[in-house]
Each structure stands twice: as structure tokens, then as C-alpha cells.
Amino acid sequence: xxxxxxxxxxxxxxxxxxGAGLIVYSLISGLLVPLKPGILAVExxxxxxxxxxxxxxxxxxTHFEEGKELSAFLKFNDGTFLESANNLVRSGKKxxxxxxxxxxxxxxxxxxxxxxxxxxxxxxxxxxPAAVTxxxxxxxxxxxxxxxxLKDAGKLHVHDAWSFPYxxxxxxxxxxxxxxxxxxxxxxxxxxxxxxxxxYFLKTKQEKYDEIAVATTSIGILLGILGLATxxxxxxxxxxxxxxxxxxxxxxxIALLIYFAYFILRSSLEDDVKKYSLSAVYNxxxxxxxxxxxFVIPRLTDSLxxxxxxxxALGGEDLxxxxxxxxxxxCIGWILLSLWMSDILRRIIxxxxxxxxx
Amino acid sequence: MTNFVAEDxxxxxxxxxxxxxxxxxxxxxxxxxxxxxxxxxxxxxVFSVIKNIAPDVWIxxxxxxxxxxxxxxxxxxxxxESGARQLFYYQLTHSLNFIFSKFLYxxxxxxxxxxxxxxxxxxxxxxxxxxxxxxxxTIVLGCLSFSTIFTFISAIANKTxxxxxxxxxxxxxxxxxxxxxxxxxxxxxxxxxxDTGYVKDIIILLSINGMLIGVMIFLFPFVWRD
Lengths: 358, 226
Known about the structure:
The complex is a heterodimer of chains A (358) and B (226).
Chain A: H1 2-32, E1 38-43, E2 46-48, E3 52-60, E4 71-76, E5 81-83, E6 86-89, E7 94-100, E8 111-120, E9 124-135, E10 149-150, H2 181-204, H3 207-238, H4 247-267, H5 272-300, H6 321-357
Parallel strand pairs in A: 2-9
Antiparallel strand pairs in A: 1-3, 3-7, 4-5, 4-8, 5-10, 6-7, 8-9
Helix pairs in contact in A: 1-6, 2-3, 2-5, 2-6, 3-4, 3-6, 4-5
Chain B: H1 2-27, H2 29-49, H3 55-79, H4 83-92, H5 95-124, H6 132-157, H7 163-189, H8 198-225
Helix pairs in contact in B: 1-5, 2-3, 2-5, 3-5, 3-6, 3-7, 5-6, 6-7, 6-8, 7-8
């Protein structure tokens, strides 16, 4: 037994430095690495077939003025591309694109959404989904528009420098994944540890397992509050308000209520042995009740969170390799740091109990 | 043969404990009457305050009343057992028989309360439920979850000095996922929404119950022993 606790002490003493280092790394790189260039706004949003249409494009992190081989396309739902007739660069972030949209369109829809694709050697390929709506009149329009529909947009360029994906709505707040999500992961790790030590307590009735359970639960609650706070600040920017009653927000609030109840149960009991075993029992029961709360119901219900209900996801192509380089270290860092914090708390509880007993 | 006899004995023990519960209840008719009066008075207050009730409010109020009545009903289940009497049961029977008889008794009681509340709601307001079978199934599932959680939590809360207030704090957060699912199922039974996936909700409730009953079987001996 002494062997295990020695190994654990060594692990914690090294792990806290690694954890702190990884968190500092994730803070610095997560905040300093720029976003990929993207298209912020397009105006006007309605174009007519059979007319020359000029759209004003505002870019984000773009370098239009350096682009020698800029090309722009409208991509329609049926997969055809229409190349722009003329691109007029105003500045690094502003550009006017003229389209000669012929009449009739190659598909019968009266109204159809089109994706704007801007292809530049400096900035890579930028895409704005549903950027414009193209209208097609019912009556034939006399027209001399010479735009030709193509099957593909030619060679697409890739932005090589280390940068995070540009996503509409999320934009710069995509960085929150490095600070918000690892807190949840570390919290779940701590709650699992706490349940495991509660199980060990019921099995062995050794006081040290109760100390571990209390310490990990306390730090888990702290991480939960931090996760809720970072999420609320992010939600204020993205959803417009701190609290939207989103399923994941509600479930987290309930989870925190359950663990607050755990501490109320503890404080209402005087007798030590009874306190330890009853709170261990409640901890296990509450964790089992939490499983559908955290892992099942949010997946079955629509949520405003990225990745749910058609929102930009944090899996698949949205969590790309450039973000994994920061996200995974941040997760490991927070887990290590929270283990260290709960170990300190466990030692404090240990000291307090031993002084009380003397 | 021995296994069969053992199983038979367990069933017999649970059944006789259940009969004991009902006998006790019958002797204390006033407490069951108080419970009925509690439900009736709450329903009367609710429909005096709200004249034209919207269907979704109807469902929400129904489950809130059933929840609070259930909390009141099942909080008694361990309080009427004094410490000395618990010691007597401890010597007499296995702890699992004891918790199962409590659980079954609470389930039957809560199901009665649920049906009576429904009757009260029909009497005082308009009939909103369209799919009677599904609504009865929802009440069964709801009372199953309520009795699992309340029975176990009242066993824990019974060990503490200020048990009745602690009971609400400990159990209501655990209830919320169950209630959210019940609200969805009831809305389906009232045709407030057309969700073809309501079978999924039934499966969720059943699996929550299954897990909680499993954990209860595992954990109750630890609550019981000290």
C-alpha cells in the first residue's frame, strides 16, 4: 500500500508541473494563433438571374490586396459553379465581385441559395454557405449575360500556416473549446474518481477513501462552476444571453445541485462513521442518476450547443488537427492540475482530522 | 429444489412485509386521509387560481402535484419505523426483502395517488388526455421512478436528524431528468406534440429505473446496517 501512495505522490509532484505547463501552452497558443481567413459579410444578399450583380464582400483576416490570382464562384445547390466576371480589390478586407448571371439558370427553382467561394493563393479557399439568394423571374428576361456554368471550381488553394478554422456564428469564440470543454472533462474524471473512492470506502471502511471522495468532489464542483461560467460568457457572445435554458446548461445546473446536496447531507450528520458511509451511498446513487443526465439526455434532445441540431460541430472537420494540437494538451493539463488540487485538499482534510482527533 | 424453496421464501417474506405495510396503513387511516386531503386541497387551489388552463400548464401542474404528494407519502415510509422496530426487522428478515416491500408498497400508493390526482384534474377542469393507455403507462413509469428514488432517499434521510427537509434537497435534483421525460410523454399522450420517437423516452425511463433499482439493491445493506 505504501508503494502505491509513493508512486501516486511522485506522479502528482511531476504531474502538477506538466499540467501547469500544458495549461500555459494552451492559453498562449489558443489565444495567439490566428483564425483562418474567412468571409464575414456579403451585401446585397439577393441577386437576379439575367442581370449583372455586384456584391460587396467583407473578409476576416484576409489579404485580398496581395492576391494576384483571386477567383470567386457562386456554387448552386445542384453542384454547378458560376465564375465571377470581375473582381475589384478595394483593400485587404474589402472586395467587390461582379457576377454575370445568365437567364435561364440550369435548374427550374425560382429562388435558390448559393454558396460564395473565394479562392486565393494567400488565404486559401474561403467559403460562405448560403451567402446569396438568386432569383429567377417567371417571364423570360432578354439578357446578354455571358456567365458560363462550370462543373468544378478548378484548383483550390490551401492555407498552410497554423490557424484555427473560421466558422460562421462561432468566429473567434471557437477558441473557447480550449478553456470550456477541458473543464468538463476534468470534472467528469474527478467525479468518477470520487465514486470509485466511495465504493472503496464502503468496501474497506477506511477513512482515507472518504477523504479522497470529499476532496475530488469539492474540486469537481469548482471545475463545474468554472465550466458553467466560461460557457455563460461564451453564450452571451454567441447566443445573445448568459442563460438560455439549453438542455446542457440545465443538466449541469442539476448536477451541481446534486453535489451541493451531497455536502448538505454531510454537514447534517454528526457521527463520523455514519456520515462517511451515508455520504458514500448518496454519492454512488447520485452518480448513477447523473449518467442519463450528462451522457444520455443531452444527446437525445436538441441543443444550442455546437455539434447539436445543425449547429457547427466540434467533431469531424470542425475540430481539425490545428485545434487538436491545443485541445488535447489542454484536457490533459486540466486533468493533471485538478488531480494536484484535489490531492492538496485531501492532505488538508487529513491534517484537520488528525488534529481534531488529538 | 433448495433454490426454489429459497425464492419462495423471499417472495413470501416480501409479501408478508407488504401485507404488514397495508395493515399499518389501515390502522392509521387518518394519515392516508390526510394525504388525499392534501392532494384535493392543492387541486382545488390550483383550479381556483387558474380558470382557463392551457394544456401544457395542466400537464406541468399535474406532475408537480403528484411529485409533492409522493414526497409526502413516501417520506412517512421510514419515519413510522422507530429505531427499536428497525432492529427487530433487521433480526427478522433480509434487508433486501425489507426495501423491496417498502418499494412495492410506495409504488402502489403513489400509483393510487397519481390516478386520484388525474380524477381530480378531470373533475375540476376539462379532459385533456387523448391517449388514455399512454397516459396510464406514463403514470405507472412516473410512479415507478418516484418510488425508487423516494424510497431510497428516505432511507438515507431517515438516518439524519432533520430528515424531512433533507429528503427534498436530496431527492428533487435526482427527479428532474425523470420529470422532464415524463412531461414529454404526457404531452405525447395529450397530442400536444407529434413525436414518433416517444418509445425512446419510455426506454429511457425504464433504463433509469433499472439502473437505480440495481444500485438500490447494492447500496441498501450499507444504509441499513449501521
